[in-house]
Design a protein that fits this description.
This protein has 599 residues and is α/β, with parallel strands linked by helices. Helix content is 63%, strand content 10%. It has 20 helices and 10 strands. The longest helix has 53 residues.
Length: 599
């Protein structure tokens, strides 16, 4: 990364922040005015010395206030006004910058989150959730920190250099030239530092993301870590990530710490020039004693903000490294586009796959030339060996990925042209790994229809055979389920997820191995529920236990991403192919032949 890319990031940020332009200009004006008022007292000190020393010949006398006492009073009033002005603009710039920082950080995070929600599943597979959280939290906060104080400091350093320079030029152009010789060196140093610091900060942000990724992954998998007694190994891996972060920061600290002493020495040259040359000129009478005072005081005023420049640029660099990450996230292209067209009500639920092919970019495997029609209201079972592509078909139906070839049609309408929300509202999904949200059982059942009445929720829970256990809980529907539903059993979670899908009452219901991870009782319960709920809707179920699908209207055997066999149970048995072989294995008629096993 070069310095130009930090300015590019700033440019992108300013384009993003177009809507805040008025507030940015107002805040900038307040910062400028505050600084001008802030350096004015030094000039007043010079004028005061001039009044005391020169009295009737002073600068103030030339303005019409001849008497020395009167001049002091005038200076008193001016001092009051200047201090009041400085305080007022300090108050205003603080309010404006800090509120801007709050607004912008909140909007950026919200925009980034909303954009990320629209991205396809492939994106989420390429980024860990910890990395995404670190961008939406840490990086956004980094920018907030810069806007809180850094932007103002940067503007004020610039104003100081220009304003002090102007005063020097008026009072003594010769001293001005000498006093300002270090400025180009400082500015060059600042840019050099910025060029060096940029890549280092990009690395720091990268390491923070990795660290956050590891943390969230490990905390999510804490049960696995414990059961494999891998605590020491995981602690070591975390320590390595943490050390990498420390190391990246160490580089940044080394660079930024060197900068301040270098700038100080450069400024010393300017200060000494003013001090000595100004003193000599005052002694020989070519410089007014008040002007000498102003120059000496003002070089001091120049010193502090410039030494602070390193920290400000440091903050700027960190903020721009973060900005780049946030804006890259915000501009990640959405692969799966929303078609926008609505479905004609009532939705019948006919699903048709036509010449559909798709392969995961990372593994190159997927499904090929899928031709399949699921009549409205019928039940289709997808069976096949593990990894054969059953879930992939379901994910494509939910439009989690963009197919390479062919298309899927719902009620004869291409999914690519459909409104994504409508499509997904019409499909209910119960998958093998149930995800429940932190909150109550009620929140989770009503997730797809928050406006549903209590009666409707209870009815859905009854059909899913979940009501019995909910009723027994002391807090009933209001029982908290814990993060990801950890306070419930696997079977209970599965039943809740079925109730949640049923309350949505979708014309198409997908059951992705909904009974694979549950006990016999739950499986029997779900089977009973299924018979009730299959009525009047299209059901696509993925199953390993063939006994659960013998009544399906159609059974499709998927093998290595292709449809190998299709028909009813009896037809497939008669065909004596993959399905029949698997059936014999599962019913115990023969021992499994390894290459033909589904599950
Ligand atoms: N996100 C992914 N990225 C890369 N490859 C994937 C991804 N998801 C699945 N695959 C691969 O695609 C193939 C089909 O996976 P899919 O999940 O559709 O299988 P399945 O038939 O549902 O298997 P199972 O019965 O075990 O659930 C597998 O070989 C799998 O490794």
């Amino acid at each position: 990364m070069s310095s130009s890319s930090s300015f590019q990031a700033l440019g992108r940020l300013l384009r993003y922040a177009r809507g805040y332009r008025g507030r940015i200009i107002a805040a900038t004006c307040c910062s400028i005015l505050n600084k001008l008022f802030d350096i004015a007292p030094e000039i007043l000190i010079g004028i005061a010395i001039d009044v005391v020393v020169n009295q009737e010949q002073s600068f103030v006398a030339k303005l019409g206030f001849v008497e020395a006492r009167e001049q002091i009073l005038v200076l008193g009033v001016l001092t009051f006004l200047i201090w009041a002005g400085e305080s007022l603009f300090e108050y205003l710039y603080q309010i404006l910058w800090r509120n801007l920082a709050q607004r912008l950080q909140s909007d950026l995070r919200q925009d980034a989150y909303e954009h990320v929600q629209r991205l396809d599943m492939g994106f989420f597979e390429s980024k860990s959730s910890g990395q995404l959280v670190s961008i939406m939290n840490d990086d956004v906060n980094q920018l907030e920190r810069f806007l809180d104080g850094g932007a103002n400091s940067l503007i004020q350093v610039f104003v100081t250099v220009v304003a002090v320079g102007a005063v020097f030029m008026v009072l003594s152009p010769q001293i001005a030239l000498l006093a300002f010789t270090p400025i180009p060196i400082i500015i060059w140093g600042a840019f050099y530092f910025q060029r060096k610091a940029g890549p280092v900060y990009a690395e720091v942000r990268e390491k923070v993301g990795e660290l956050a990724g590891r943390l969230s992954n490990n905390l999510g998998g804490i049960a696995t870590i414990k059961s494999f007694t891998a605590e020491a190994r995981e602690a070591e891996r975390l320590r390595q990530s943490s050390e990498a972060y420390v190391e990246a920061n160490r580089k940044a600290i080394r660079i930024s710490s060197a900068f301040i002493p270098i700038i100080r020495m450069a400024i010393l040259v300017g200060f000494l020039a003013t001090f000595i040359l100004g003193g000599l000129k005052t002694l020989d009478g070519s410089l007014n004693v008040g002007a000498y005072g102003v120059l000496v005081f003002l070089t001091q005023r120049l010193l502090w903000p410039l030494t602070g420049l390193a920290q400000v640029i440091d903050l700027f660099e960190r903020a721009m490294a973060s900005t780049r990450r946030i804006l890259d996230l915000l501009t990640t292209p959405v692969q799966v586009q929303d078609g926008g067209e609505g479905l004609t009500a009532p939705v019948k639920g006919e699903v048709r796959f036509e010449g559909l092919s798709f392969h995961y970019p990372s593994s190159g495997v997927g499904v090929n030339d899928i031709e399949l029609t699921v009549a409205a209201g019928s039940t289709l079972a997808l069976v096949g060996a593990t990894g054969s592509g059953k879930s992939t078909l379901v994910k494509l139906l939910l439009r989690f990925y963009q197919p390479e070839q062919g298309d899927i049609y719902l009620d004869g309408k291409s999914l690519a042209r459909l409104d994504m929300q409508q499509l997904r509202q019409n499909i209910g999904l119960v998958s093998q790994d149930v995800f429940l949200f932190e909150g109550s059982i009620r929140d989770n059942i009503a997730y797809g229809r928050p406006e549903a009445s209590e009666e409707e929720m209870v009815a859905a829970a009854r059909v899913a055979e979940a009501w019995e256990f909910i009723e027994r809980l002391p807090q009933g529907l209001d029982t908290p389920v814990g993060e990801r539903g950890v306070r419930l059993s696997g079977g209970q979670r599965q039943r809740l997820s079925l109730a949640r899908a049923l309350l949505k009452d979708p014309p198409v219901l997908i059951l992705d191995e909904a009974t694979s991870a549950v006990d016999n009782e739950t499986e029997a319960a779900i089977q009973r529920s299924l018979r009730k709920i299959a009525h009047g809707r299209t059901v696509i179920m993925i199953a390993h236990r063939l006994s659960t699908i013998v009544h399906a209207d159609s059974i499709v055997v998927v093998d290595q991403g292709r449809i190998a066999e299709q028909g009813r149970h009896a037809e497939l048995l008669a065909r004596n192919g993959l399905y029949a072989a698997q059936w014999r294995v599962q019913t115990g008629e023969i021992a499994p032949a390894p290459e033909r096993v589904f599950a």
